[in-house]
Amino acid sequence: MKYIFNITLLLSVLLGFSACATQRKATQSATSTESKTPDVAAEKLRFLQRVNDNRLYQKNLVASLTATIVTDGKDISVPGSLHMRKDEVIRLQLFLPFLGTEVGRIEFTPTEVLVIDRIHKEYIQADYTQLRFLRDNNLTFYSLQALFWNQLLIPGKQQVGETDLSQFNVELSETGQQEITISAGAIAYCWEADKSTAHISRLQASYQGQTSGRTTLDWQYSQFRPFGSKQYPTRQVATFTTAATNRTHTGSITLELDTPQADANWESRSAVSGKYKRVETEDILGKIMNF
């Protein structure tokens, strides 16, 4: 079930390489902000507040879904489910079409990554220090959480608060999408948010590693549906290219969710059967691509 591990590669890439445009562009944006009038600065802050206020209040999000994975020239669609508990876990489960039998699951918690292959009865369990690109760039579970929950993020922080909004810059336009950027060391982030709704509709990213090559990411959000008093994007498409595993991989994953629910009646940690074999690895990405 190689596609299980291709999804894990994608999710790991999403964690580690959320860099938008170039460092030079981020620096220029920050510099240009200093020359803006107070009225423009206030307008930018108001828009950032609207974007940040779109965060969901719910602790839990559960939804059935269809996952379409395109990688290495192959295209496969499988049913699945998404279970998220804020600040605790992101779990993606994949099932056999028609039969509904689970073939694998991928689970991210604040302390570790767990990948279970039900077909071969194997699993990978690794903490984030084993993902070098995460460790070196101060990126954590909370980075991936922000992407899945359709939120802004600041590397090294659990969440973006009101007092953090001054760290972002906004390129205002009369209509359409507003561009939001932030730089953090050698990494810069860029989001597009709709002017009228303040919904985040896209993240574009790229990162050039000193030894790992270039990685790019394009994550798009659409089909927003009511979820409590807010709205959540039930269609998410993430496309990536990475050379982090010694050869270039290109792929995408499309998640099409049914109506999300705030169900809290589920366990936040997966138990691994003693009959399963643990696969040890120092570099989880390299190991995943060898399955």
DSSP strand count? 14
Summed up, the helix count is 6
N-to-C SSE string, H for helix and E for strand: HHHEEEEEEHHEEEEEEEEH
Q: Which class best fits the helix and strand makeup?
A: alpha+beta
User: Gap between N and C termini, in Å?
Assistant: 8 Å
Q: What's the overall average pLDDT, rounded?
A: 82
Largest sheet: 14 strands, mixed
* Broad shape: globular
Task: Record the strand order, biggest sheet.
Answer: 7-8-9-10-11-12-13-1-2-3-4-5-6-14
**Low-confidence segments, ≥5 residues, pLDDT <50?**
18-34, 285-291
Our estimate of the beta-strand percent is 35-45%
Question: What's the oligomerization state?
Answer: single chain
Radius of gyration: 19 Å
Overview in brief:
With 291 residues, the protein is α+β, with helices and mostly antiparallel strands.
Describe the protein in words.
By secondary structure, this protein is α+β, with helices and mostly antiparallel strands. 21% of the residues lie in helices and 41% in strands. It has a 14-stranded mixed beta sheet. Helix 1 crosses helix 5 (141-148). The termini are close together.
